[in-house]
Amino acid sequence: MKSLKQIYQATCLAGLLALGTSSCTDWLTLYPQDRVVEENFWEDKNDLEGVRYGAYRKMAQTVSKFAVWGDLRSDSYSINRADRSPNNDYTEIINGMPDSSMSVFDWGDVYTTINYCNKVLQHGEEVLEKDKQFTTGEWIQMQAEMKALRALNYFYLIRAFKDVPYTTKVVNKDSEVESFPLTNQLAVLDSIINECESVKGKARNRFSRIEDSKGMITNCAIYAMLADMYLWRASLHEGRHGKNGTDIVNGEEVSHDVSVDYNKAIEYADLSLQSLANQNSEESNSAGINRVTDETFNYGLEYCDMIKNDFEGAGQSATPQLEAHTAIFTRGNSRESIFELQYSNSDGISNGIVNSLYGYDENTDLEVNDQALNSLYDGGIAGEKENGGMWDSRIWICCQNKLTTGRAANDESSSGANAYYCMKYHLPSSGIILTMTGTSSNHELKSVTYTSRAYNNWIVYRMTDVMLIKAEALACLGGSAQKSMAKAICNAIHRRSYCCYKESTWVPSEIATTDGKYGNASGTKLKAKNNVEISEDVMRVLNERQIELIGEGKRWFDLVRLAERCSSQKASSDPDDPREVGVKNGKSGMEAVVELILGAGPNASFASTLINRLKNRYGLYCPIYYMEVKASNGAIEQNPVWNKSKYER
């Protein structure tokens, strides 16, 4: 494996040559591979675009790590007992024992993407001078795109690792290679927020092809990123000093009123949703764009026209169709998509993670933890109450029961698996989305043969994700109007997936703002043994995010953000942070999330052990790959909770 230092060295030349453009190929035939002569490469717009597309291509190849970093340690999954060749690293990670020797924590590919962005940004001005067909307007749009893409990759890194090396410097020759030290998480977050602020509104609103509008950074995506980043920054600051206070960031005092950031998250979520609505409207009125026309419905929320599932007559039909799921995940690039990484057979890039993590039976790493999802609904997944999971069509595809027998629940020696699996990215071979058995109270899937979807796009942001970012910020502000709107957002998202064929009176109102029932289990206020509390309004949003976004690499990041935010409630009882002067180490927030949320899932039997392993907020983040620490000559320090790899014990 390459260290960060080696990654920057390699992408000086070899990375550019691997992009497959004609310019790169010609250059390779003219110059030795071990010489960096990029001054002969950056001649016209095509050279810039080759590296620009290479950045997206490299990011698409990194999705398997994004999914593991953002989801695997959460309460949504357990290891698939039927898997005949289990990934033992995943077992250790789920059990709270990640190790710095695990290659899944090698962040090299992310920094390769970042360096591609840096290269485009460094050479854009000189290409603008040389290529008279390349306009200033085009460069401004490309510059905004690359700065935002770079920021997004850093955002993944700080959510996964906390403190990371941060640089916007391009390394063009071996003599410029250096070791980059760790930068404080909040300092990196401030930098990428400022960068996105500087380019907001300057990218493309859309491209001429739908695949590009969804597969490349647009203004809509930048607004979504800003909403997410501000929500994170508010949570991090609140966890350190409450609603108002002063943080020490890189040795300097930074005053913060977290309500400002929560309101910024709401503002940019609205801008993203409005921009998406405008994008869809423009595409509908543009000649030459062929999009499947999906019926939409608005549940009383501005700029939130969601694809409608047609459940009319579902009580009599054995084959209710999930139009929204089909559009969003099967066809891809839907009208609800904001940014999704593209995969295709013609490009030779497959999204293997959807097959290795999710699916039926053997050779799939994960089962869905139905125990955790049961807690989302009154009466559990099978409950018949209005809020019961049996009426939520997302459960049919995201927590699908493998209807086989022959094995006791805990018998790991048999291949027959009476377990739940996430089929979100897979397609029934019959072409029917799902087939139901029974009437009235019996409501479960027949056993269906599924085919893999190796070229499914990976969604980074979509409409309901941004709606729920807004809802969480509203819930955190805590005013009565804000809590009411957060509840309405949850209700609308759940209502889209609510299929009740028993009685029409059980169906919640289609006007989210006037209906008191929002679909999932009532957000119950939770209180941990250490007296840290999670409000019912925040829990409502987190419940909805868990079922709506399961399998999309979000849940663990959501729990980390929650633990960080809760830490301020009992910070005085926490020890000092080992790195941040004047800050407590977040132990109380971590303990509350483990006890109240992870403790209700597969880790319930050893919650206290898990608390001892995680220790404090640093345990919520990944260990740094040991080769990075080794190659940095002391510039990179290991995460203090995971300070020894198995090779050093």
Give keywords.
two-stranded antiparallel ribbon; 649 residues; mainly alpha
Structural class per helix/strand content? mainly alpha
Shape category: globular
Question: What percent strand?
Answer: 5-15%
Low-confidence stretches: 5-10, 12-36, 403-417, 437-443
> Termini, distance in Å?
21 Å
The total count of strands amounts to: 18
Biggest sheet, spatial arrangement of strands: 1-9
Largest sheet: 2 strands, antiparallel
Helix content: 40-55%
Mean pLDDT: 83
User: What is the CA-based Rg, rounded?
Assistant: 24 Å
Short description:
This protein has 649 residues and is mainly α. Residues 5-10, 12-36, 403-417 and 437-443 have low confidence and may be disordered.
Description:
It is a single chain. With about 650 residues, this protein is mostly helical. Helices cover about 45% and strands about 10% of the residues. The chain is built from 23 helices and 18 strands. A two-stranded antiparallel ribbon has the order 1-9. A two-stranded antiparallel sheet has the order 2-3. A hairpin with a 6-residue loop joins strand 6 (about 295-300) and strand 7. The longest helix has 27 residues, at about 260-285. The radius of gyration is 24 Å and the shape is globular. The chain starts with a helix and ends in an 18-residue tail after the last helix. About 55% of the residues are buried.
